[in-house]
Amino acid sequence: MKRRSISVFDHSSAEIKIASLFSGCGGLDHGFEEAGFRIHFAADQNADAVECYNSSLRPVARQLMIDKNFEFPFQPDVIIAGPPCQGFSTGGGYKANDERNDLLISTCSIIARSKPQLAVIENVEALTNRRNTCYFSTALEALASAGYHCEWSVLSATDFGVAQRRRRTVIIARKNAPFTMYRASPREAVKLSSVLSGISDSDINHKPICHSPDSKHYRIALRIKPGQKLCNVRSGPNSVPTWEIPEVFGSTNSAEKQVLHAVRQLRRTERKRSYGDADPVSIDRLSATCASADAQTIDNLRRIGYLRVVGNEIDLTNTFNGKYRRLRADDVSPTVDTRFGDIQLFLHPLEHRGMTVREAARIQGFSDKIKFPRNEKTAFRLIGNAVPPPMALELAKYCRELL
């Protein structure tokens, strides 16, 4: 006969008291609510996040400063938390001196003092990188010292039916009881074509910004195909250099293009520094490599705006790795970040415009019932910082098993 596992809680999930820290607009919380739990308390330091949370979930969120001395108004059974991650992320540049990094440790201190049966902490994938080892190890040690068995894993949003390449570190801490960390069962990826279809024109969060056909943004977008990006520093079929869009950046002849191609290659292969991924190129080295690189041609490219002088060397003017990235309808999206609505960063798969707030929310897995602020910059920040609700739902189901 199979033995029935005995749960810590013999009552319903709704009676389990869950408290949420750094709740944002409620991505993690929406998943737990959908799984049958009831969030009793939520706190965030941002007023916009709290207002969005209370209007879309339940009015239990409060705008509060959260530090290591934070106290809950009741004894929580479960704590879920998403402390700020900007200083840990590759996109944030690994800011070791970012004061928000300490909030991860503060979260663990709050958990250790509050003594819930279970805690779930979500953060960026890069939290587990070597540069962040000190913070990550300190956090795990704080929980272990308080009597928690901790497991962690880097989870991919695509494994949860989210149409997005988003990888996040999840830490689960259980009081005095070992367990095996959750493992997602990979499923077929959900494509953007299905996620972005059928959005109502009356949706207050779906207001496509269509630029004039003679605008810079529109003319660049015309040249970027699905899966491509505007990029000078890397070659390949998915990189469209500025010199291939003369109507925006200026015309070049074949000799000038040869010089630009040579600079693009040399700046990555002729390295001088121990940091960065490219260096300016000496004119002598360029001339020895490219027969077209005479003084007149180089000066023309500098005058047009394609080259710039750096000391005694030259470099490309636009050295970004990629802008105007065109999403693919038959693929998933890159990570939805706080700048996802900027046309200079991301293009709609089929239309010559940027993404709308509702499109970003759909890609994250939010229901259309959830309304975000009319201020688009604020809305994109809330969505980009959120945990995809479908991922949160599966984690919540697993947490019920642990309880």
UniProtKB/TrEMBL annotation:
Q: What is its EC number?
A: 2.1.1.37
An example of a Gene Ontology BP annotation on this entry? methylation
List the keywords (alphabetical): Methyltransferase, Restriction system, S-adenosyl-L-methionine, Transferase
State the PROSITE patterns in the record: C5_MTASE_1, SAM_MT_C5
Q: Which residues form the active site?
A: C85
Q: Which reactions is this enzyme annotated as catalysing?
A: a 2'-deoxycytidine in DNA + S-adenosyl-L-methionine = a 5-methyl-2'-deoxycytidine in DNA + S-adenosyl-L-homocysteine + H(+)
InterPro entries for this protein? C5-Methyltransferase, C5_DNA_meth_AS, C5_MeTfrase, SAM-dependent_MTases_sf
Kindly report, in one word, the top-level EC class recorded for this enzyme.
Answer: transferase
Q: Which GO terms describe its molecular function?
A: DNA (cytosine-5-)-methyltransferase activity
PANTHER family reported in the protein's UniProt record: CYTOSINE-SPECIFIC METHYLTRANSFERASE, DNA (CYTOSINE-5)-METHYLTRANSFERASE 1
The entry's family comment says: Belongs to the class I-like SAM-binding methyltransferase superfamily. C5-methyltransferase family.
What name goes with this protein?
Cytosine-specific methyltransferase
